[in-house]
Amino acid sequence: YEISANYGQTKESTDILGNIVPQRLLLALDAGIDPADGRIKCRSQFDPSAAFSYDSDDDLASEIAACVPYNPFGAADNTAAGAYILENTTSQAKLEQFNVLAFLSGDTSGFFELPGGPIGFAVGAEYRREKLFYQADPLVEAGRTFYNALPTFEPEAFEVKEVFGEIRMPLLSDRPFFEELTLSAAGRISDYNSAVGTTYAYNAGIEWQPIRDIRFRAQYGRAVRAPNLSETSGDLSQNFAPGFQDPCRAANIGSGSQNRAANCLADLGQTLLDSIATLPNYSLEFLSGANPNLGEEKSNSYTIGAVFQPSFVPGLALTVDYFDITVDDVIASPTAQQVVNSCYDLPDLNNQFCALFERFRGTGLGPNQEVPGQVLDGVAEITPVNFAKRTVRGIDADLSYRYPFGADNAVSTRFIYTHLFERSNFEDPTNPDFENRILSELGDPQDEFRWNLDLKLSKFTIGYEMRYIGKMVLNNYEDFFSVGGRNPENEDYADTRFYPEVFYHDVRIGYELDKFDFYAGVDNIMNTNPPLGLTGIGGGSGIYRVRGRNFYAGFRAEF
Hints:
Layout: E1 2-20, H1 22-29, E2 31-33, E3 40-42, H2 60-66, H3 79-85, E4 86-107, E5 120-135, H4 138-141, E6 158-175, E7 178-192, E8 198-211, E9 214-225, H5 229-232, E10 237-244, H6 260-276, E11 282-288, E12 297-308, E13 316-328, E14 331-332, H7 336-345, E15 381-382, E16 385-386, E17 389-405, E18 409-426, E19 436-437, E20 447-457, E21 460-469, E22 472-473, H8 477-480, E23 498-499, E24 502-513, E25 516-523, E26 550-557
Parallel strand pairs: 11-15
Antiparallel strand pairs: 1-4, 2-3, 4-5, 5-6, 6-7, 7-8, 8-9, 9-12, 10-11, 12-13, 13-17, 14-16, 17-18, 18-19, 18-20, 20-21, 21-24, 22-23, 24-25, 25-26
């Protein structure tokens, strides 16, 4: 048995140097010659019509009094203007966690055994409490810097009480066709002090080894993930979606799903569609933050596989597993662009995304100069939501072999391969069969493998690794191929449909000398860059290596 308690606290102070204060920048840029003395000054200092507040500044008079004109084309000395425009800010954060755990484990060898041996078990309980605090600099909190206005974050503490148990039952062992037959099960009950309430997680599995060379295994599991404090607590705050494109404007209405055009027409009518037809890309203001009504994510997973270690080939091992995982009520934070697109791309306008934003349907201009039909600034509330489900099915294979020869020599190799049959999101709770296929899109190839080959000759080693990433579709899979019986959505999106398959090759050598290990190597020998101009740093392209050919060397020492 064991009883433990742990308390931890982390404090963080973040200094941002040179924050731009837009109010001051605009006042400093608006310079002119003061008629009273002929000097260049901030125009607001001598022209009352220029004394305009660009933000929520409550002390405009002091800002104007301190204003120093700024010459953006360069001046003999812009130092004073820079000191006026820029402001250093400091934000504070603290995290606390308290955890108590107690468990009892053992087996029944002292009083009861099954034909395969004693029953193993473990039971326990756990309590966890977490507390968060974050406060931005007052200037940032007021929304007066280049950053968004960030409110103080100090939610109620997160608490969970849990009990759990595990059992392992060896039914048979050392019998014909039953070298081993074992059942296992586990469960956990958790009670959260939030809208989640009580959750249940559990699993059950079986292992059967008919002969010593092969073992079969299968398992079912139910897992849950409760939302964390950042997803459920805190006030909504200002945010922006730069480069926002209205999916219903003329340039975009032909993209997306086959439902978009009809839904845009049904929602806006031809008059409002014409009104927004020439809207440019722009920065949409919206409100983002937490959703206190979030529920837990729930997943069901099935795995079945085998481990083959033939006694007639020492050093060889092959593992193959099939997996099928479905996650329901997924917690996700869609972007403003995804929210508005999804509203019109789903089959029915009566969906959770359309309820998150509003359009200006009046005459003239809206409260923030919106044209009729345009999405209203500062109204959309983009918060985490429980999506319908996500699915993935595939096979993992792991083949390894090691062959020793001589006194201190060996050759070894390992091949790890993943093939996916399915990887999809189902994003409409009112239509659970509407599939958004992710498989084969950028970042989610259908096939990947990694192969290692190592040769050890006494103190000298040389290693080689190959990594393979299969081809992936440009943009959306649905653009070129039918999904769920729907026609391709944008077949002429590009004349090239796939990012090509990619191979990476690495070589490493090493030498052991007493208490020193020396090593050197070359990664990405072929100097392979991300294909078709990708950067390797975003939008799914992070699956590729950012750097080309890379040399390295070093040593490790023991003292």
